[in-house]
Amino acid sequence: MTQIICLANALKYGDRCIAGIDPTTGQWIRLISDLADGRITPEMRLIDGQEPALLDVLEIPLGGSNLTELENRSLLPGVWKRVGRVAPAEVLQYCSESEILHNAEKYVTVTALNALPLSERRTVQLVYAQEFSVCSKPKAQGGRSWKGSLVTKTGQTLTNAIITDPVLIDRLDLGNFLQTPCLVTVSLGMPHRPATGWEGDDPCWKLITGAIELN
């Protein structure tokens, strides 16, 4: 069993993508199921019928690291446990002040990511956001789609990244906005080319997969 501090429980193809920090190593772990796209279903993740929440300390049966992404760990059969919870201040130590996932763009191409040494290939990052703002537009099927923009205290920026944290989306739908500063988990999605007008390599878009208020 491996412990993680949950820092992302985000929407992924109708199910979830879950990631967190191993408190013994300080390294990121993203859970990958044996489904084709690696998503985590309710049968895999619910603990006594409840979703894992950000800042929960989870105990999860995991296999070894993926050979192409060190952060990816295979989910093994077994029961998940919630064994504790940490305060927001306790995860400040895991924030990175470097560029947000390798560059100042809203995406990283597959080619650029694969060109990096495996030890430097990051696909998920915790960011201290000095400023955080959102915008939205109606969805055809109802509700609203939300995007977030942030500025770190070292001046790194991310603009109009899609928010996939369902708890944050529900909160924003009710008109409750985040107080700053806050902690934001930014992850790379799977490669996705826009329907029209895209030239060049396949992009992996930066997504906001978790947000935690410090106050």
What does this structure look like?
With 215 residues, the chain is mainly beta. It has 2 domains: 2-91; 95-213. Helices cover 8% and strands 44% of the residues.
Mean pLDDT: 93
The class by helix and strand makeup works out as mainly beta
User: What's the total number of strands?
Assistant: 13
Query: Mind summarizing the main beta sheet?
Result: 7 strands, mixed
Gross morphology is: globular
- Note the total helix count: 3
List the helices and strands in order. EEEHEEEEEHEEEHEE
How many angstroms does the end-to-end distance come to?
A: 32 Å
Strand residue percentage: 35-45%
Short description:
By secondary structure, this protein is mostly beta strands.
List the defining traits of the structure above.
mainly beta; 7-stranded mixed β-sheet; single chain; 8% helix; 215 residues
Topology:
Blueprint: E1 2-12, E2 15-22, E3 27-32, H1 42-45, E4 56-60, E5 62-65, E6 72-75, E7 81-85, E8 107-109, H2 110-115, E9 124-138, E10 144-152, E11 157-163, H3 166-173, E12 182-188, E13 203-213
Parallel strand pairs: 3-6, 11-13
Antiparallel strand pairs: 1-2, 1-4, 2-3, 4-7, 5-6, 8-13, 9-10, 9-12, 10-11, 12-13
